[in-house]
Amino acid sequence: MLYILMCLGILSAVGTAFAAHLYTAWYHIPIFIGMCVGFFLLWAALYLLFALILGAICNIKKVEYDPDPVFQWLARETMKYILFFCNASVKVEGLEKIPKDQKCLIVSNHLSNYDPISIMTHVPLKPLIFISKPENFNLPVAGGIIRKAGFMAIDRDLVKNAIITINKAAEKIKTGQTSVFIFPEGTRNRTDIKLLEFKNGAFKIATKAKCPLVVLALKNTNLVKKRTPFRHTTIIMKVVDVIPAERVATMKTAELSEEVREKILEAI
């Protein structure tokens, strides 16, 4: 989407330059460059307005959807857009470990709101849905889009509802509908501790679905907000390990949780 917006900006600037005959002198060059930037920002603003309206329309019905390919693409492209304007990039290590022909459960540590953005834009599993807190589905732009993209809400305060979400997520993986991501810490880590205690229930998705478990470790996502927009942030996303489905099926949830936590601790 960013490349499309850039091309639209350049084409708009070229059209305007020819219409106004701004190509006959050397001092027209900085004017043309300024127009390119200006039109790019204009198209970017129009895209944001489109996403805002679309998100509001999609959020009228507060229901759960299966992953929609169009909205999966829109969610991914919008997140790339956010990274670009926040002056952040993602360096990925170990991506080749992720199985391309199987649906997986993916987990990682949780430092900031830029964690899911980094993962959605750089993990090659499609479709990919996130299990997220209910409040995120009421966000002005993102709420409706992630709802239509198939993301699922989990209310950890209501155990019965949380179990229903976990079972649904496991079934989606088991039937080959989608890969699923969840933060086992349950919330962002705002402490000085490297990693919060894990909620073992998150790993029931893997044990019920008997699927591969992809373990990620994230660094620097908590720095993006502090540095935006003038200082660049390189986010590090490492694929620490992939626990094969055969091994997941033989492990208890608590054992799986403990092993994954140790792997992430070593990586961060």
The helix count comes to 10
| Assigned CATH architecture of the largest domain | 3-Layer(aba) Sandwich
CATH class label of the largest domain? Alpha Beta
Which descriptor suits the 3D outline? elongated
What is the multimeric organization of the chains shown?
Answer: single chain
Structural class: alpha/beta
Overall tally of structural domains = 2
CATH topology value of the largest domain: Glycerol-3-phosphate (1)-acyltransferase
Total number of strands: 7
Largest sheet: 7 strands, mixed
Give the uncertain stretches in residue-range form. Answer: none
Mean pLDDT: 91
The CATH superfamily label of the largest domain reads Glycerol-3-phosphate (1)-acyltransferase
How much of the sequence lies in strands comes to 5-15%
Elements, N to C (H/E):
HHHEEHEHEHEHEHEHH
Helix content: 40-55%
Radius of gyration computed on alpha carbons: 21 Å
Q: Can you list the strand order of the major beta sheet?
A: 1-7-6-2-5-3-4
Distance between the termini: 32 Å
Please give a structural write-up.
This protein is an alpha/beta fold and 268 residues long. The mean pLDDT is 91. It folds into two domains: 49 residues; 203 residues, Glycerol-3-phosphate (1)-acyltransferase. Strand 3, helix 5 and strand 4 form a beta-alpha-beta unit. The longest helix has 31 residues.
Topology:
Blueprint: H1 2-19, H2 28-58, H3 69-85, E1 88-93, E2 105-107, H4 114-122, E3 128-132, H5 142-148, E4 152-153, H6 159-174, E5 179-182, H7 204-209, E6 213-219, H8 224-227, E7 233-243, H9 245-248, H10 253-267
Helix pairs in contact: 1-2, 2-5, 3-4, 3-5
